[in-house]
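comment on this one:
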Amino acid sequence: MKKLNLFDKFVFFLNSILATTLLLSYILPYIEPERSAFVSVLSLTVPFLIIVNILFLIYWLLRIKKQLLLSLIVLLIGFNHMASLYKFSASKQVEDKDNIAIMNYNVRLFNVFNWLPNKNITAEITAFIKERNPDIISMQEYRQDSDLSLKDYYKFEVLSGNKVKNGQAIFSKFPIINKGSIEFPNTDNNAIFVDVVRAEDTIRIYNVHLQSLKIDASTDPLKNETSENLFKRVGNTFRLQQMQADLFLEHKAASPYKVIICGDFNNTAYSYVYNTIKGDDLKDAFVEAGNGFGRSFDFKFFPVRIDFIMVDESFIVNSFKTFDVKLSDHFPIISRVKVK
């Protein structure tokens, strides 16, 4: 520090705080929101903390200062967190006749309240789906709409609400032999499932939509709400998500079939609910085969990935892609998987 000028000393002070915060964030996926909702809220800032520490590293590298070791060591300790934010390797693309193409898409009610100026959202989403031709489609914030014409699919939907009935839907090109819903108390969010038959395999597909944070992606979260109230509200949401994840996992544990999980978790890959749902027996398709940031939510401040496709050990993940299609506040994701 003796050889640093006053400005560099200030930069290193900020660097120390943010590097320490990132280091502490590595334990967040193991802290139940019920125990400390405030601490769990910090999981939302992990992408920001990683990016800022990379910038500090670059700053000290250009200055040829040993202070670069602080952020470098912290980033290396959390290398798995880095992999969840950004995949440096090329995306995996394995073409196989036995691939099953799975799409997850939060369609935001097909723009029924005109959040986007585009008046042809439903038709464009339909055209996008037909072009990509997935075998399975998992939709959140779905509503019945006569313009959504997917005649080649079997469908299961669970809707609620008064003004606009909405909920979750699963479309499948494979016959559906069983279906059901896992109800979450005191909310319109839920998880649904279908059992489909594909060749000699029966596969259970889950569509999980956890409690929403209700943060507008296009505005500053603090603009109309104090930071104290925001933390309190988000903390309460995380407690609900924990309860919903527990209900889902109880149902999943009884599944007799191979399992694919799709959904909008309304939380990041650094959260308790992600860590709990993924566990040790599931594979995150983005981590297995994606590249880049993989952001799935159109948040203007930093890349956020809250939509997921996971598979159990019965599957090989052969590809994953996020599509920069601005027809919702979420981006569609598609993975191709193969039964081993």
